[in-house]
Amino acid sequence: MKRRSVLKVVLTSALIAALSVPAVATADSAKTVIEGLPMAARAAPVPAGVSPELAGLIESRQVGTHAETPSSTKQWLALQAEFDAASLQGVARLLEMTGAQFAIENVAGVTTYRVTPTTIDPRWADTVFVHVHGGAFVFNGGEAAMAEAIWMAHGLGVEVVSVDYRRPPLHPFPAATDDVIAVWQQVIKDHDPAKVAMFGTSAGGNLALSTVLQLRDMGTPLPGAIMAGTPAVDLAQTSDSWITLQGLDPLGAREGVIEGTFDIYADGTDRTDPRLSPIYANLGNMPPTVLLTGTRDLLLSDTVRMHRALRAAGVAADLHVYDGQSHGDYMAGFFVNAPETHDAWRELNTFFDLHLE
Amino acid sequence: MKRRSVLKVVLTSALIAALSVPAVATADSAKTVIEGLPMAARAAPVPAGVSPELAGLIESRQVGTHAETPSSTKQWLALQAEFDAASLQGVARLLEMTGAQFAIENVAGVTTYRVTPTTIDPRWADTVFVHVHGGAFVFNGGEAAMAEAIWMAHGLGVEVVSVDYRRPPLHPFPAATDDVIAVWQQVIKDHDPAKVAMFGTSAGGNLALSTVLQLRDMGTPLPGAIMAGTPAVDLAQTSDSWITLQGLDPLGAREGVIEGTFDIYADGTDRTDPRLSPIYANLGNMPPTVLLTGTRDLLLSDTVRMHRALRAAGVAADLHVYDGQSHGDYMAGFFVNAPETHDAWRELNTFFDLHLE
């Protein structure tokens, strides 16, 4: 046996020290503006690790500035209507592409859309998935709610009930989760909850998690599994990737419209309330949860933070990160038939097959 | 039932269109320099999602410039000696912190270090893990090899054999994996291979994967599981996060010394050779593999690409991404007793417990 001792230790990490030679800081001027590590301006070419189909999508991408942030209820309603109408075009295209059908159903007083794909996978024949749409809590209402529901229904061959929950500015927190809870309680009258998945992306990921947390606290039977796609889980603090990846994601920035949507959604409630920001919740006994994100996703940090918190609480949580993808691009790839989208469907099928009874 | 049709579709993604209003491109001048999405200069504050201990580490961080790239064998050897000596200080500190002991053993003609922690976990009492050190293929030889071996031995309570493989500039590819293969063949004479994990970080992750791929092709019994920490899996192409996250990671940049190490390691062999770049390999029948990385890791993209490729090949591969961590920081946190490091040990214990027989 041999043992060494040292008199002087200068390294914070042997590995890192071995790979780089620290130099004096060079960005004192930048540090006077914002404290932090300086990132120089650059251009980010199409990532090496993406399919030609996704590369084409990224190449055509323009990361624009946001609309002006509304300052009145009237302005919010106008922007909401504009966005909903634009999203509805995408929904119409998805219906045409897939041949999926939908029916409008009033469930417990809440408008829902039952989306039926052309083919049902036998393993999902006796169940339905519950969809909570994204759109920063404010956008994608009415039939525009269905985009991700169609994506899931078509990709997995499963019937989906999409919840057209009430939204700000007229209906702030907790109207949205109240509506999802009401629909859930109705759905489980006809279905074994352990065979039902709840899913959503972005604000929809937040709402799916928040709804299930509340169901857990109410003692209501829970979904057998959750998909939280690039979920906005921290409305109180700005996670790192909102800053580090800005410029790469068509989502734009948190400042402005998105921060405004968080504001009118919270409507004065403390944003660290776990019903608003699931990252602050006690996550014990949550159902198995699969999370999706990308390396150019402004919500990469929110997503990985949630994954870690779920795992630390003992939840069976899986994480899939797609190289070069921005916010929700696993769905955007649907429009160009990207292999990454088929990969996401495969992972979701595998996960739900494992965890839904 | 209700169905809509559209005459004109302008959206590439309903979700994204709902959250941002595309504007005209503003960065024509940047595009004349490098084709790609423009990222503006910024400063990245300490991430919201990290522990106070890791925050302290990040706050004290200076992302420096690299040493000059050597242009002769003599210069490479000098830089190698300098780096090895620096890393050895870290190893000495880790030995002091942990009380771990080590013995130098010649195994099949290869120098190895058998690292024994103060306490062995009963579940790992009858096995040993094989460690392949990192350091860009060129650095961290001699006793400096042991840093991660000590980290693993102490964190999991397992005996570790760390391979001091031959390195460039004197011994390019395939000397390193030849050495690891030789050690492996000796180790499995005394241990059930299904109970042995092989692990490494950075270049060590590459070498662990490459070694096991070659063992598979040779028909040699494989390790029961692999840990590939932030592995450099693509020496041919520059994955996206090398560019997008530059400035945040003490690793610095790929250009310069690191690209130079890849060059003297490959020594003229085509870098898309899967023995050099495992991302290009057929990955069928690889053992369960756990991958670790962080949102500020220049090898984030390499890591998630490998995770996806393994999953697509049907391998049981798990991914853990730590918010705000740069290259190998799950180990760097060891020096400040960060909760993230304990979390990594917990995940590794769970993974190996599940997959090692």
TrEMBL record, chains A, B:
Residue ranges constituting the Alpha/beta hydrolase fold-3 domain according to the UniProt record: 130-328
User: Signal peptide: which range, if any?
Assistant: 1-25
Residue stretches spanning the membrane: none
- Record InterPro entries: AB_hydrolase_3, AB_hydrolase_fold, GDXG_lipolytic_enzyme
Please state the Enzyme Commission number of this protein. 3.1.1.83
GO MF terms here are: triacylglycerol lipase activity
Q: Which keywords label this protein? A: Hydrolase, Signal
Which Pfam families does the entry link to? Abhydrolase_3 (PF07859)
UniProt lists the family membership as follows: Belongs to the 'GDXG' lipolytic enzyme family.
Q: What is this protein called?
A: Monoterpene epsilon-lactone hydrolase
Q: Which organism is it from?
A: Ruegeria denitrificans
